[in-house]
């Protein structure tokens, strides 16, 4: 079965005789063909396969996931067992799924999944910029707080991807970002020598030496900007991958500056009031 974005940009796929019993030695291929800037996302809603007996799938019913490599396809994942898979996203416009049913049983109902050819990498928050395929802006004049995440979250992020997240506050604002989930493949210091994927934080459009790169599995942590602008770069290579990250951002008014301004203003009013009282007292004395 071949599914093209120009004909069917989204839809449903399922195993043969879904909800019935498929025969043993059943093989079905689902080939997705999108356009250059598109990614294929597959989200399972049903996954009724025999339970896995060990760490590997062995001879169980499986779904193999392939991506094109030169003139052939490369196996990137194997799905089996009774656990619902997380969403899948291709690294390019093409993806191949191959279902292999080896067991005949009334309990094996197969699978059902929704697919979509996407240009937003599965990121529905912020405003997608047109100058880079994976870049999103978050402006406090539109929304003061909200969530953002890696492509295809909570599924594994695609390989060889570079995404930018830009945060724009007003003159008196800073942005605070609380990461509630963080699983980015790599080891410190998250550089090319360690072949790591990473997040890079900056108060500028370019690299900021104030912050180290972040990678690995980390518990919740918070990053704050120095001013009204903040940039996050997420970059993955073509090796291993993780399930990405999720963060909550909020634009906050600079409390120190605001309190200082209020204090100066109140003292100014107090000074003016004292001057008026003094002038009234002098006028009474003259009269």
Structural summary, described in words:
Residues 1-118, 134-252 form the CUB domain. InterPro entries: CUB_dom, Non-NMDA_GluR_Accessory, Sperma_CUB_dom_sf. Keywords: Disulfide bond. This is CUB domain-containing protein. It contains one helix and 19 strands. It is mainly β and 287 residues long. The N and C termini lie far apart (103 Å). The protein folds into two domains: 2-118, Jelly Rolls (Sandwich), CATH 2.60.120.290; 127-253, Jelly Rolls (Sandwich), CATH 2.60.120.290.
What is the third-level CATH name, the topology of the largest domain?
Answer: Jelly Rolls
Number of strands: 19
Q: What's the number of helices?
A: 1
Main sheet properties: 5 strands, mixed
Using only C-alpha atoms, the radius of gyration works out to 28 Å
Give the low-pLDDT segments.
256-287
Instruction: Sum up the overall morphology in one term.
Output: elongated
CATH class type of the largest domain: Mainly Beta
Summarize model confidence as the mean pLDDT. Answer: 87
Separation of the first and last Cα atoms = 103 Å
User: What percent of residues adopt helix (DSSP H or I)?
Assistant: 10-25%
Strand order of the largest sheet: 1-3-8-5-6
- How many discrete domains? 2
CATH architecture of the largest domain: Sandwich
Supply the CATH superfamily name of the largest domain.
Answer: Spermadhesin, CUB domain
> What order do the SSEs take from the amino end to the carboxyl end, as H and E?
EEEEEEEEEEEEEEEEEEEH
Protein name: CUB domain-containing protein
Keywords: Disulfide bond
Pfam families: CUB
């Amino acid at each position: 079965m071949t599914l093209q974005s120009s004909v069917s940009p989204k839809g449903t796929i399922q195993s043969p005789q879904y909800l019935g019993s498929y025969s043993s030695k059943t093989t079905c291929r689902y080939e997705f063909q999108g356009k250059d800037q598109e990614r294929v996302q597959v989200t399972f809603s049903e996954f009724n396969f025999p339970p896995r007996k060990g760490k590997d799938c062995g001879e169980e019913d499986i779904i193999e996931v392939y991506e094109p490599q030169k003139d052939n396809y490369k196996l990137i994942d194997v799905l089996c067992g009774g656990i619902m898979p997380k969403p899948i996203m291709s690294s390019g416009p093409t993806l191949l799924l191959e279902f292999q049913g080896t067991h005949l049983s009334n309990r094996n109902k197969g699978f059902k999944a929704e697919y979509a050819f996407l240009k937003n990498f599965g990121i529905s928050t912020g405003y997608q910029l047109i100058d880079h395929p994976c870049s999103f802006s978050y402006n406090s004049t539109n929304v003061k707080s909200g969530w953002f995440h890696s492509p295809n979250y909570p599924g594994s992020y695609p390989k060889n991807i570079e995404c930018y997240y830009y945060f724009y506050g007003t003159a008196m604002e800073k942005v605070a970002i609380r990461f509630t989930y963080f699983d980015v493949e790599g080891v410190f210091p998250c550089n090319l020598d360690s072949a790591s994927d990473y997040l890079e934080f900056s108060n500028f459009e370019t690299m900021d030496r104030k912050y180290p790169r972040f990678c690995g599995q980390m518990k919740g942590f918070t990053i704050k900007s120095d001013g009204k602008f903040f940039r996050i770069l997420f970059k993955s290579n073509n090796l291993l991958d993780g399930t990405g990250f999720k963060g909550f951002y909020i634009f906050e008014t600079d409390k120190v500056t605001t309190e200082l301004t209020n204090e100066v203003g109140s003292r100014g009013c107090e000074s003016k009031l004292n001057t008026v009282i003094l002038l009234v007292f002098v006028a009474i004395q003259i009269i």
